[in-house]
Amino acid sequence: MKIKSTELNKEDFAAFGQIMAGADVGDFTPLQPGDEFTWTTTSEDVDIDKKCCSGMLTCKGREMAVKKMEYHANTSEILVAVKNDYILCAAPKNTDGPTMDSIKAFRVKQGTVLAMSPACWHWIPFPINAETAEVLVIFREHTGDDDLIFADLAETIEIEL
User: Fold this and answer.
1) Rounded-to-integer distance, Cα 103 and Cα 65, Å
2) Torsion sign (Cα): 58, 73, 78, 101
3) Does position 106 have pLDDT exceeding 70, yes or no?
4) CA distances (Å), 6 to each of 37, 66, 68, 69, 70, in order?
5) Which residues are CB-contacts of 96 (< 8 A; sequence separation ≥ 6)?
6) Do 153 and 136 contact (CB within 8 A), yes or no?
7) What is the CA angle 98-90-12, rounded to 5?
8) Which of 9, 66, 134, 151 is positioned for an S-S bond with 83, CB 3.0–4.6 A?
9) CB neighbours (10 Å) of residue 28?
10) Which residues is 108 bridged to in the sheet?
11) Is the predicted pLDDT of residue 88 greater than 60, yes or no?
12) Are 52 and 120 contacting, i.e. CB atoms less than 8 angstroms apart?
């Protein structure tokens, strides 16, 4: 099965989580002459425990094909696109596993911050036009040890730019 990636936008991403920051995806308050700073609330109700951990995920360029996905039942997952743009495959919450027709592929620009909803299916990002992409990941402490659920897909998803 083939799917075409789409530009990330708030409306289409709402089923998977929230866009917390990004140069061209939000309604953010720009600095005005004389301002030293601005504050714009970008997200509310991000479901992360009081103790979190973080890690730097370096995603290697490879065939853009997804054969399995993962989710975390008990936490949101924050993804910060630190270096280079990438494609993120995701599917909405479904404890029975991701359904083939619900999987989407989003083009995420460097600097974008996403909050994936708990139990939202996803897979390791694919760099766009680079050998690697670096993504800072933040979620509940010990998530990788006690809240990492995998599911094989019924068929391989091939992603087109």
Assistant:
1) 12
2) positive
3) yes
4) 33, 16, 20, 19, 21
5) none
6) no
7) 115
8) 134
9) 12
10) 86
11) yes
12) no
Q: What percent of the chain has pLDDT over 70?
A: 93
Give the Cα separation of 120 and 20 in Å (integer): 16
Q: How is residue 35 written in tokens?
A: 């301002």
Q: Residue 89 pairs with which residues in a beta bridge?
A: 105
Give the dihedral sign, CA 58/65/87/94.
negative
The span from the CA of 22 to the CA of 108, in Å, is 9
Other C-beta atoms closer than 10 Å to the C-beta of 145 total 7
Helices (H) and strands (E) in the chain, counts: 2, 13
Phi–psi pair at 131, nearest 5 degrees = -70, -35
Tell me, what amino acid is at 144?
G
* Rounded Cα gap, residues 31 and 47, in angstroms: 29
Q: What is the mean pLDDT of residues 142-160?
A: 95
Closest CA to 1 of 161, 145, 155: 155
